[in-house]
Amino acid sequence: MNETNNPKLKSLAQVLRRRMTEEERHLWYDYLRKSPVTFQRQKVIGPYIVDFYCAKAHLVIEIDGAQHFEEEGKAKDRVRDAFLSELGIRVLRYSNVEINRNFRGVCEDILRYLPKGELRSTSSP
Which residue among 20, 45, 53, 108 is least packed, with the fewest CB closer than 10 Å? Predict the structure, then answer.
């Protein structure tokens, strides 16, 4: 996966890693960071910064706040998802509410998209 040479995006991604939302922090520290497959957070892919990326699974995980449910946010997400899909990357989207109310269900759903040969029993939430 080519990381863009755009210094603005790279430095913005670093800032976003330091300023993760509560829901991003929960998913990262309580599940993805412990995963037997490697995830990167706030990864630059083309002209975008994705919340979480697993190269081995060609998988992006996005945690959506309220702005993603407004018309402008939905339109931007469709363009972004189409770009990532063209690269062969699947995008999974979960709302902040899903992370807060059904964390285990979100983790179980993510698990379905990870390479089976890499998983161990310790990968459950």
Answer: 108
